[in-house]
Amino acid sequence: MHAETVIDLDVLATAIKAWGRELGFADVRIADADLAASEPGFEAWLAQGFHGEMDYMAAHGSKRTRPAELVPGTRRVIAARMDYLPRDAGPDWRDAELARLADPGAAVVSVYARGRDYHKVLRSRLQQLAQRVETEIGPFGYRVFTDSAPVLEVALADKAGLGWRGKHTLLLNRDAGSMYFLGEIYTDLALPVDPPVSAHCGGCTACIAACPTQAILGPQRMDARRCISYLTIELKGRIPLELRPLIGNRVLGCDDCQLVCPWNKFAQRASLPDFDVRNGLDNATLTGLFAWTEQEFDERLQGSAIRRIGHERWLRNIAVGLGNAAGAGLAGDAGIVAALDARAAHPSLLVREHVAWALARHAGA
What we know:
By secondary structure, this protein is α+β, with helices and mostly antiparallel strands. The protein contains 15 helices and ten strands.
């Protein structure tokens, strides 16, 4: 193991931050592993059932709020963030996204999912960062995480000073908004910690007002069961009937609370090409994506985070969007109805049910 007696931990912490920036991270900070202040709120959130079908949120006991129980020996958490707004995003990117939401024929995929799977990118880069430390000081205890295992990422990033938790529950940064991914390295090194930053949401409630399904119940209170990201990604079965019309043309994820956040006028472009848009997902149509066969879905989305929902849920989500087009000026549109008819006898009951709902919307309109 490393011999901390001969390591200048202050110098090492400074070096870790520099190495992280060299690897494409926008910022790297360090927190202690004490999340006692976050435990009551997390337990109350679970007790209210706000996690829905995300059983993994409750499956690990106190390991999520006690890092040293998940990885014995953990003394510090190296928290990092990586910008994901595509490199070619224009200065008016938020207006462009809002315009697509208003186009009933457009298929809107959350910005984070349009490029390469962030799990792979961040995990690889964090592993490289840890190995760089190992090269410098010798073997030490660590484990890398990126939206994986029971880790309270936002709480740790908040504690490390990467930003503050916004009213929509996402991390906000004065210089970069919220369009970035988070990752962590749990370590046994007693590195010096960084101070947290103060919150700067003030009286703004734009994110709460903008949520299409009113999933944000109040500042930092999220009922995931109503969140469109949950409904289109985490939910495995039928999308509740009362929520379908509220989803609009969002076929995977939702960025509405981020689009209206004033801090995202400072959102930074990605430094890596990994998050460049693939498969034209920034300009796709509902009928175009609905036509993909399962083989096309698997091949086109190789290396994409979208692939994990599978073709069946992909079709389910798009069917909802096609049905909602009926109430947004495209009722009875021949191309949409033909696309739905082509899937009406799909082998999956889940797909058939959502297609039937969509066709009924067009017939009723």
